[in-house]
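#dry-run=false #mode=assembly
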Amino acid sequence: MTQVMAMAEMLKRCPECGSINLSWNRDKGEIVCKDCGLVIEDKMVDFSQEWREFDSTEADKKRRTGAPMTYTQFDQGLGTEVGQKGDIFRLGGRDRNKFFRLRKWQYRISTAIERNLKLALAELKRVSSSLKLPRSVEEESARIYTLAVQRGLVRGRSMESVVAGALYAACRRHEVPRTLDELSEASQIEKKEIGRTYRFVTRELGITILPSNPADYIARFASALKLAAETQSKSIEILEKAQKAELTSGRGPTGIAAAALYVSALMHGEKRTQREVADVAGVTEVTIRNRYKELLDKLKLEKDIKKTKKKRRK
DNA sequence: AAGACGAAAGTGGTTGA
DNA sequence: TCAACAACTTTCGTCTT
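#status=ok
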């Protein structure tokens, strides 16, 4: 018993520096150590169940309205079947005919959509869990997918690509950044295909997506590069300045985030090569260089890193 | 030798006629 | 539907450390 408690205690500590000063960003599925900046857990398990059941009596007491309503079940967890029970025998002739018709339609509609959704949601869960996406995003993407199926948007497209598109859209809406590359990796769908269906689905469904913010990527990239919290917050500062200087519009957000990180790493003497930063950000060194150069002349940051390049002549 | 830098050519997507 | 365009990539040669 004491062992269990000891383990639970350890989980609340940063494995890097031992600090207990952790902050948990539920929406992003990240636990961040406020002292050293390490992202301890961006692999969110499943926090959606708020009680535990030790036996069935207890389960019955604690459950409130049965299974939670959820879009990750094909019928949102609330199956409806027309007239299975005894109700029908209480109806007269005409009503009874109407009833049969309804039941037939119900059956047809549900089997067509249901078959598709069952498969698709299984796929969605697979991809989502391999990307360690938080539950809220999974829900959202399942909702988007369901809408897409109901509007017949899947016709002519592969189910998997629509699933990937829905996931990507959900990530963007929840400001849980995952790049197209990561989605592509997890779903085995080509990047451009995901992008295409993503645009198509969001346009058809009228989903508005805010342009993704480079700052959303910082925490994850910084953690992958093992950069200090100080460096991380500095790079966010840089990003804000860059935004004011209109350096961010039209550029790929990952490139900007990568460049900001690269610069702030230099400034704090935590040198990382362009190659390293480029790899975790999924862009090329060239892009980092371009952004980096823009940051330097537009924001006049030269003096801060002068020590590394002192006798450079134009 | 490895990293940083920049030029040139190619790719995929957006936009506007 | 097509062409112009911007952002980004790939590739490669040169310079710096």
